[in-house]
Amino acid sequence: MTTLPPQFSASESHLARQVAESFGTDAERYDRSRPNYPQAMVDAIIAASPGCHVLDVGVGTGISARGFQAVGCQVLGVEPDTRMAEFARRGGIEVEVAKFEEWDPTGRSFDLVIAGQAWHWVDPVAGAAKAAEVLGPEGRLAVFWNAFLFPPDLADDFAAVYRRVLPDSPYLRGEASGVEAYSAFFAKTTEGIREAGSFGEPEQWQFDWERSYTRYEWVDAVPTAGGFNLFPPAAGRYRGRDRLSWGRLHDGVRRRGGYCSTSRCHLMAAT
Q1: Do residues 142 and 43 make contact, with C-beta atoms less than 8 angstroms apart?
Q2: What angle do CA 126, 148, 114 make, to 5 degrees?
Q3: Is the dihedral of CA 239, 227, 41, 264 positive or negative?
Q4: What's the pLDDT at 170?
Q5: Could you give the CA distance from residue 37 to residue 146 in angstroms, rounded to a whole number?
Q6: Residue 140 forms beta bridges with which residues?
Q7: How far apart are the first and last CA of the chain?
């Protein structure tokens, strides 16, 4: 069985390059199953920024970029995975392939640097320093994550399935869920911004919203989580003796009316 690097943790996730650059193995699945971001968050970020020239760090398939494009922003993406970059380009997003810390801006500057569900893959100090380098006067750094919130009984069902089918899953490296599960990312980001010394004190904003999944949609989304796609091919592991386990995941969602939901987008911003 493929296992995750022993150093993989929230505080050092940027070192797990095998995981960070693995999402493009199924970019189409990633794009259709990952949630977007609430319009209220996009509007708040733009309102607090000096303009709408945006750099999207870890743009992926373009989920976050499309939200800013939709309100008239000019968006350039930086993405280390060529497969994700190509998918985003097909959707009309300009993307340059590089790790953000090593990316050459060639003298360009931006009003806003964003990262949706991606900043934990960036070195927290070098990334903040690079963001400061490419931001113009009063420019804003805004990084954000969707936190998945489940009722306790449903979360228990999910954990039981992961323990049986994917015992090395990163979802089993801790017991926290929802925003609490992201607390280490928030702390890491805050410390990195402070240490870079180029920004004021980071602010934290929270936006509650809901994205519903049918049980089939949720099972489709599971392999897009960081590290899951490094295990043996999903189709093979979901068959045979593990079918009952995945059936339990289906049933757990169905008992709650046929869907589960994610809510609460957490944003950290600094100028």
Answers
A1: no
A2: 30
A3: positive
A4: 54
A5: 7
A6: 112
A7: 44
Tell me the one-letter amino acid at 203.
Answer: E
21-34: per-residue pLDDT in tens? 888 889 999 999 99
Helix (H), strand (E) at residue 266: strand 265-270
Write the single-letter amino acid at 76.
Answer: L
Distance separating alpha carbons of residues 99 and 83, to the nearest angstrom: 14
At position 271, the amino acid (one-letter code) is: T
Alpha helices (runs of H) in the chain, residue ranges in sequence order: 17-20, 27-33, 39-47, 63-69, 82-90, 124-134, 152-165, 178-181, 183-196, 215-221, 234-237, 243-254
Give residue for tokens 């954990």.
Answer: 159
pLDDT tens digits for range 39-82: 999 999 999 999 999 999 999 999 999 999 999 999 999 999 99
In this structure, the strands spanning 203-207 and 211-214 are unpaired
Structure-block tokens of residue 37: 């971001």
Domain residue ranges in the chain? 10-149+176-212+263-270
Q: How far is 245 from 123, CA to CA, in rounded Å?
A: 37
pLDDT (tens digit, 9 = 90+) per residue, 213-267? 887 888 788 788 776 666 655 444 444 444 445 555 556 555 555 555 555 677 7
- CATH of the domain spanning 10-149+176-212+263-270: 3.40.50.150
